[in-house]
Amino acid sequence: MRFSLAALALAGMFASPALAADQVAKAPPDGDYRKVSELVKLPDFLPGLGQLFVDPATLPAGPFLAYDHDGSLVSTIYMLPVADLTDKDKSFDDLAAPGGAVDHVDVYFNAGHPGVEMPHAHVVLWHVRAADEARVAQ
Amino acid sequence: MIATRRTVLRIGGVILAGLAGTASGSTGEAAEIAMRGNEDGSDVWYDPVGLHVRPGQTIRWTNHDAGNAHTATAYHPHNAGHPTRIPQDAAPWNSDYLLPGESFAVTLLVEGVYDYFCIPHELAGMVGRILRGGSVRRSQTAQRDHRERFVARCIS
Ligand SMILES: [Cu+2]
């Protein structure tokens, strides 16, 4: 019994391509993530967000993984174009969420930036307490 | 941060290097336009959104938005198929993306109304207008530059 459970767990690990939280806890994250500032012309550290990584295949939605100045993961961000959110034929399904426990969530409008060049919503899953958002304020 | 990047437009097969300051006879201070955004990126704009410039006066855009990149891009078919909203004889410009602290400057050699936009923020309404006044140097400029109507240069 113990053996079969272990085998199941093992099979589950290999069946799923999803990254575990410890694979993304520190910058740079494992997998196909690349530094956003190397993909498009944006500052390397964005005030309020941090240093961003994304798998280009997942643009524009992401997830984007955001790190503080010490390279620790602070949030997972999805960027959802307003035009898509109001299009009855579009949806965002099965977005990856490798960042682990979520403390709180922010949702707000963004006018656009290189990489996601249209008005969109930022959905920010913070993995740190609200007081620790200061780690990426500047 | 002086002249780490210089952009020169190629017009009619002629490369117009380094003429911006002299071809049109610089008249006084450059007109400054700031590219701005609020803290969470929910609003972006040119400051001022409209501007009148004298003949020969250089216009300089500078990105003062710490969290974003912006462009100053003329409404013209050369720029991603946009409609022409600059004078008939004027050449279009495109600053390309400016990171925080970077600048781009043009001197407009043709009188008239110029509309321009920001590539990543046009949909968010980041557009501006320049009125370039009548030229006291029109004949002089025309003699010297009748093939070379426009010069752009970028100073970072
Ligand atoms: Cu802009």
Short note summarizing the structure:
The complex is a heterodimer of chains A (138) and B (156). Chain A is built from four helices and six strands.
Per CATH, the superfamily of chain B is: Cupredoxins -  blue copper proteins
Query: What is the count of β-strands of chain B?
Result: 11
Largest sheet of chain B: 5 strands, mixed
Overall geometric form of chain B = globular
Task: Write a structural description.
- The complex is a heterodimer of chains A (138) and B (156).
- With 138 residues, chain A is of the alpha+beta class.
- Chain A has four helices and six strands.
- Chain A has helices at 2-15, 21-24, 36-39, 82-85; strands at 34-35, 51-54, 64-67, 73-81, 104-110, 120-126.
- A six-stranded antiparallel beta sheet of chain A has the order 1-2-3-4-6-5.
- The longest helix of chain A has 14 residues, at 2-15.
- Helices cover 5% and strands 31% of the residues of chain B.
- Chain B has one helix at 138-145, and strands spanning 10-11, 14-15, 31-37, 44-47, 50-53, 58-63, 73-74, 103-108, 112-117, 127-132, 150-153.
- In chain B, the strands form three sheets. Chain B has a five-stranded mixed beta sheet with strand order 4-3-6-8-11, with no helix packed on it. In chain B, strands 5-10-9-7 form a four-stranded mixed beta sheet, with no helix packed on it. Chain B has a two-stranded antiparallel sheet with strand order 1-2.
- Chain B is globular, with a radius of gyration of 15 Å.
- Chain B starts with 9 loop residues before the first strand and ends with a strand.
- Chains A and B meet through strand 5 of A and loops of B.
- The complex binds copper (II) ion.
- Residues 35, 44, 70, 118, 120-121, 126 of chain B line the site of copper (II) ion.
SSE map:
The complex is a heterodimer of chains A (138) and B (156).
Chain A: H1 2-15, H2 21-24, E1 34-35, H3 36-39, E2 51-54, E3 64-67, E4 73-81, H4 82-85, E5 104-110, E6 120-126
Antiparallel strand pairs in A: 1-2, 2-3, 3-4, 4-6, 5-6
Chain B: E1 10-11, E2 14-15, E3 31-37, E4 44-47, E5 50-53, E6 58-63, E7 73-74, E8 103-108, E9 112-117, E10 127-132, H1 138-145, E11 150-153
Parallel strand pairs in B: 3-6, 5-10
Antiparallel strand pairs in B: 1-2, 3-4, 6-8, 7-9, 8-11, 9-10
The complex binds copper (II) ion.
